[in-house]
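Reading a protein record of the kind used here takes only a little practice. The record below shows the convention in full:
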Amino acid sequence: MIYPVIMAGGSGTRLWPLSRKLYPKQLLKLVGNHTMLQETVLRLRDFTDMGDPILICNESHRFMVAEQMRSIGVTPEAIILEPVGRNTAPAVAVSALQARTGGDDPLILILPADHFIADVTAFRQALRTGVKYARQGHLITFGIVPEAPETGYGYIRKGKPLAGDDDTAAAIDQFVEKPDLETAKSYLASGEYCWNSGMFMFRASEILAELETYVPDIVAASKNAFSRGRSDLDFFRLDHDTFAACPSDSIDYAVMEKTTRGAMVPFQAGWNDLGSWEALWQVGNRDENGNVMKGDVLTHDVKESFLHAGSRLIAAVGLEHHIVVETADAVLISPRDRVQEVKKIVDKLKASRRQEAISHKTAYSPWGTSERLVETDRFQVNRVTIKPGAVLTLQKHFNRAEHWTVLRGTAQVTRDGEEFILREDSSAYIPPGTAHRLSNPGKIPLEIIEVLSGSYLGEDDIVRLEEVYRP
């Protein structure tokens, strides 16, 4: 058995304004009809002996991760929630412990959730080679045969070929950090180096043993966090305090650069980690002018550019080698060769405590979505969609009133102990200080317009009287 372990944490700030802290790039449809997370899982379908995925994510993304798996018909082996980020070594330790809970000792395949792979056939062939050598006791990393002198990736130098006549697997000679351009050119010319993909395969017991050898403190903290963890709905929560005390380290530094059992499987498959808007231009479908365009876009004399319209028309004239990305609350414009500096904008947004760094106008919850349509200091208008059968928290507010109008579906309203039904084009008023709740008893999504009014509209003006979903 092979358990795929999908690392689904991270915030992807270099793809702002689409990717944000509460809605990161691995949960977005950046290429194709599925999100990056879904694509990562789907390309493993029908692979021999591949089990259900173990997903590792942070708590704020848990319901979106679960919903994205449900929508493609996948039931994860586990969804493990990290209370804080501690890099990949602790995550690998925890996933190996999870994989062994049934008493078996399977292989585990470590995959980031945000990689693009054009040639799935080549990727699967590399996995088959990895399985062969992982079963022999090697700790496998997958190297990408470089196509250009890339300075944004770490590299791995190939050592002696492994014993075998059907592939190009080799021992690992050296891990090297991201090089400057001239060094990257020399790596490419030598043919001895691969990009470090961050994908690995090894037997669960063997990676735990190597972790125990080189970073016993990480293993001890991970075991404590796992043993003290608890199930919560579809999720497994690691113990907060013990995991927070765990040292932070990558599996590369912790084990792969030190072990004598490491091996690399090189492959070419049109791989890209989609770490910038330039990367999305590179993998996108370009028109006759070299432009990648998504959404409602009109251009005149625009060349070699990436234009993404999320909520309205983008009209561009005379641009060349530029990135234009529009969302409901932000627009990014940058030369293609400077998109790595987008992170500086995100840093400024965070320093100013602006919401645009954290979330979009549409917020995602286990019960549905809420889209901010109008926002002032005295009133706010939201479009709220509630899933069939979903129930919201019983709560009240001291400084604001709420007025709900049903656009579609049927709402069940609780207001100070009274329960009643609202149908299309009917409404209800909730005065300040009134205990209230909304639910959808119907079989179709419930859509309402919610108007908030009052002296203070902040989300901290909430008294939760009966919690349905744990924060």
Q: What stands out?
A: The radius of gyration is 25 Å. The mean pLDDT is 93.
